[in-house]
Write a structure and sequence with these properties.
The complex is a heterotrimer of chains A (351), B (79) and C (326). With 79 residues, chain B is mainly beta. Chain B contains one helix and eight strands; from the N terminus they run E-H-E-E-E-E-E-E-E. In chain C, the strands form two sheets. A six-stranded parallel beta sheet of chain C has the order 2-1-3-4-8-7, with helices on both faces. In chain C, strands 5-6 form a two-stranded antiparallel sheet. The chains are: A alpha/beta (351), B mainly beta (79), C alpha/beta (326).
Chain lengths: 351, 79, 326
């Protein structure tokens, strides 16, 4: 902790953190507060997590609380669930969201449903830390987003921060919630050493104290009046870049970070689109049956007359993630695709 | 006494160059000895920079700059 | 069971070809990725799990296999693909993401498929077990010759799929061999910290299959044990777990320093490729001239494959939408 006991006129030193560091800070703080909290997953003790989620924690808390597991997701997620039901506070690391396949039954059929099926007798206070997203040629089984797959089944809360400030606040919220919570970060936003330079916009000033951000609350990164660019994770940043370009073309775009997949801030979505009258929603998950569909449903159900032109979805096409660079780039919800969608919706007329 | 911030020799291994990634504190901030004040990369490894002394941080190397083994990344001045 | 000289040369050539390809891939991989390492940059992007040190496992097993057999590998597939006889040029082109690649660039390094030699890969741990056993089942049901082999790592033996599949292999007496390449690590976690038993081959009795553990990372010893498992399967006697001690000479993927391994342990690892080369010369299996000639030929093939990979065209971007359905 830095003390301002020397009168230099400088305030308590501000810190600019990466999302990885901010997330870790929240976990470490909660681990210190709650002796019943422990981490469990692959490569988290010695390695500190494939995405740096637990660097330094085995040194501070020991390997009895930072538990390296065999490659046995169904097994250790089931074990974590039972521990949660028995009063502990497990935090499960699944490095790549693609790996939920091997253990999905434990997550969606048991952990997510036990509170409900038991009529409230059993709580399952369980948090998952998960990395997602592609754009660096990791191919079909290591590049997915899968918000819809996780979000579709009842009983799971899912958040996806887009900067370090939100990363820490949402992690505290997850770790203090008595339900199954999932904290997901796009791999290209984390500030990791093997994906080039950290995206500057994902860095943020992060307070040293603990703080929470509510579930189901979206965030307006940039106010605008002509159209709403809604996104999550990396597509927030792509939308921000698109908004800059659109401003130069005389179009005022509002950038709305959905931030919370479940619960979705339906009021926030409607409020923004009712104001601007136009909507582009960008998501790196597959197009069909996903977050973008849900966002459009909000408008269609509440009042489609707020739309001055058809809404446009910019999502991953319904194909597996291709390995080859030109094919992968074609599929990503890029700045260019968002710009094209924005211009299209500015021109479109309601039928 | 001003103290230079350099990457310790043993962290370089066989590499000859690295990159400055991020500074956690702003230029002019008061920091304490051994606080993590920044991150840099040497080849494929991401390394933490620790303050070599307590005092005021002066940043000399911006993020995304390529650095060599003897590069002075910044200094700590007396507070 | 002893290999003939011809088989020993076959094994060395498979190991050497894999090694030279991995050397070329390692050099090419770092292009475009310095000074700041960015996995997605350069001509060879993405994750890259290389086979340095594990070559004997593929060579010693695949030497027994023929056109009727099927082989599956995991996320560290190069040595297995090469030993299986996957088209080297098309494999290199796939690593570069070119349209001339095995999958036209759709799969990449962890998803190499070559149906002409009944070879497939999978990127999720133990995921290839079921499909491999299924290929064995199909041969049995269709009364066709051939057996199936799935290569997995020691970490995979702790996945649910491993246990489910091996139970069915035992129950249905499938002509299936699970080859466990025991390089003693699952990324950063040592086998002794993840696995309740020292040898996964000891788990075989739980599934009513045969089990054998081979120490030493020695192609000739692997040859013998693999030969036994293959003959058992061909005779209709059922499946096997063949666990092979091997060495992961490098990190888990390019970019992993392996700093979590004790220094002494890393230094103690022996490279099996030059060791086998030495043995073949010492036992006069071939002369130094013949060896030089073999290596020059293989080097030429690797050079040509890498050149083919680099010079081939990329697919058109819209081709991403093709080949979803048959």
């Amino acid at each position: 902790m830095v003390h301002s006991d020397v009168d230099t006129g400088a305030s308590r030193a501000e810190r600019t953190l990466t999302m990885a560091r901010a997330g870790r800070e929240a976990v470490i703080s909660e681990m210190r507060r709650n002796p019943n909290m422990f981490l469990i997953g692959e490569d988290i003790a010695k390695l500190g997590g494939v995405f740096g989620t637990s660097i330094g924690m085995a040194d501070e808390f020991g390997t009895a609380r930072i538990i390296d597991t065999p490659i046995s997701e169904t097994g250790f997620i089931g074990i974590a669930t039972g521990a949660a039901m028995a009063g502990m506070r497990p935090v499960v690391e699944i490095a790549f969201v693609d790996f939920i396949g091997v253990c999905f039954n434990q997550i969606y059929n048991f952990a997510a449903k036990t509170h409900y099926m038991s009529g409230g007798q059993y709580k399952v206070p369980l948090t998952f830390m998960i990395g997602y997203g592609g754009g660096y040629n990791d191919a079909a089984q290591h590049s997915q987003t899968l918000f819809a797959t996780l979000g579709h089944v009842p009983g799971i809360k899912i958040v996806t921060p887009a900067d370090a400030y939100d990363a820490k606040g949402l992690m505290h919220s997850c770790l203090r919630d008595d339900n199954v919570t999932v904290w997901m970060v796009h791999k290209r936003l984390w500030g990791l050493g093997w994906l080039g330079f950290p995206l500057p916009a994902a860095l943020a000033t992060v307070p040293e104290h603990d703080y929470t951000i509510p579930f189901g609350q979206s965030r307006v990164w940039r106010e605008g009046s002509d159209l709403t660019l809604a996104g999550l994770g990396l597509t927030v940043h792509n939308s921000l870049q698109a908004a800059e370009q659109l401003a130069a073309e005389g179009i005022s775009a509002e950038v709305l970070d959905l931030r919370s997949v479940v619960p979705l801030d339906r009021d926030g979505v409607f409020r923004s689109v009712a104001k601007t009258g136009r909507l582009v929603v960008a998501d790196e998950d597959y197009l069909s049956f996903g977050v973008t569909s849900e966002v459009l449903a909000v408008i269609a159900e509440r009042d489609p007359s707020v739309l001055k032109s058809p809404a446009v979805r910019v999502a991953y096409p319904d194909v597996p993630v291709p390995f080859s660079r030109p094919m992968e780039d074609f599929c990503l919800p890029s700045v260019e695709r968002i710009l094209a969608a924005a211009r299209a919706t500015m021109k479109g007329r309601k039928r | 006494m001003r103290v230079d911030i350099v990457v310790p020799g043993e962290m370089w291994g066989d590499s000859l160059e690295g990159v400055m990634l991020t500074w956690i504190y702003k230029d002019g901030a008061l920091v304490e000895k051994d606080q993590v004040i920044g991150e840099m990369m040497v080849e494929k490894a991401q390394l933490e920079l620790l303050a070599p002394a307590s005092g005021r941080l002066r940043i000399l190397t911006a993020p995304e700059t390529v650095i060599g083994r003897r590069h002075v990344l910044g200094t700590i001045e007396p507070p | 069971m002893q290999p003939t000289s011809e088989q020993r040369l076959w094994m060395y050539e498979a190991m050497y070809r894999s090694r030279r390809l991995d050397d070329a891939v390692l050099a090419a991989y770092m292009e475009g990725k310095t000074p700041v390492f960015h996995m997605g940059k350069g001509p060879l992007p993405g994750e890259m799990h290389q086979s340095f040190g594990q070559e004997p496992c593929a060579a010693g097993v695949c030497v027994h296999l023929g056109a009727d057999d099927a082989v599956g590998a995991g996320h560290r597939p190069h040595h297995v693909a090469i030993a299986r006889g996957v088209n080297l040029k098309r494999m290199a082109a796939e690593l570069f993401g070119k349209k001339t690649g095995l999958s036209g660039g759709r799969g990449g390094h962890m998803h190499l498929y070559d149906a002409t030699v009944n070879f497939f890969c999978s990127g999720i741990i133990a995921e290839g077990m079921g499909p491999g056993a299924g290929m064995a089942l199909a041969r049995k049901m269709m009364k066709k010759p051939g057996i199936a082999v799935a290569f997995v790592g020691d970490g995979a033996a702790n996945q649910g799929a491993f246990h489910e599949v091996m139970n069915m292999v035992g129950l249905w007496k499938l002509p299936f061999i699970c080859v466990i390449e025991d390089n003693k690590y699952g990324v950063s976690v040592a086998k002794r910290d993840s696995t309740a038993v020292a040898h996964n081959s000891d788990r075989a009795s739980a599934y009513a299959v045969a089990g054998e553990y081979v120490a030493g990372n020695d192609p000739d010893l692997i040859f013998a044990a693999a030969g036994r498992a293959v003959e058992r399967a061909r005779r209709g006697e059922g499946g096997s777990i063949l666990e092979l001690e091997t060495e992961r000479l490098h990190g888990h993927f390019i970019g992993d320093s392996g700093a979590y391994r004790p220094e002494a342990e890393r230094k103690a690892m022996k490279d099996p490729v030059p060791a086998y080369r030495q043995r073949l010369l010492a036992e006069a299996v071939l002369s130094a001239d013949q060896l030089a000639s073999l290596e020059a030929r293989v080097q030429g093939e690797v050079d040509e494959a890498m050149r083919f990979g680099r010079e081939s065209e990329y697919p058109a971007p819209e081709q991403a939408l093709e080949r979803l359905y048959a």
